[in-house]
Design a protein that fits this description.
23% of the residues lie in helices and 38% in strands. With 132 residues, the chain is an alpha+beta fold. The chain binds cobalt (II) ion.
């Protein structure tokens, strides 16, 4: 599906503010954007590492998928996002190869990107996002 690079790594945290000192003061990364994605019930914070980003995900509601993830597995790496030139085409290719899709069509994510998720059942247990 013509992946160019890892667009970002999503990390589930209980509290973004509590994590900023580690990312900024220890790793020396600069948080360049904090944004709430209402339909996913998360607050996100972004750091750049080369052309890849770290995306911290804090639940804004108890029924957020991130809240459920933290409840089940604890804080930590939540998903990996690959950059592709065309999310719809990549989804169609994945489906044609038997991959179970979470999103049948691309939708809007943070930073105005087109995104879609593949189901971990079909991706060796890593929640996988395609991003354009
Ligand atoms: Co993401």
């Amino acid at each position: 599906m013509d992946i160019s690079h890892i667009e970002h790594i999503g990390i589930a945290v209980k509290n973004i503010d509590a994590c900023l000192p580690y990312y900024e003061n220890v790793l020396g990364l600069k948080c360049y954007n904090i944004e709430e994605v209402a339909d996913q019930k998360v607050k996100t914070a972004f750091f750049k590492v080369g052309q890849t980003k770290i995306e911290l995900l804090e639940p804004t509601s108890e029924d957020s998928t991130i809240a459920k993830f933290i409840e089940k597995k604890g804080e930590g790496i939540h998903h990996i996002a690959f950059a592709v030139p065309d999310v719809a085409a990549a989804l169609a290719e994945a489906e044609s190869k038997g991959v179970q899709l979470i999103d049948k069509a691309p939708r809007g994510g943070a930073e105005g990107l087109n995104i879609a998720f593949l189901h971990p059942k079909s991706t060796c247990s890593v929640l996988t996002e395609l991003c354009q």
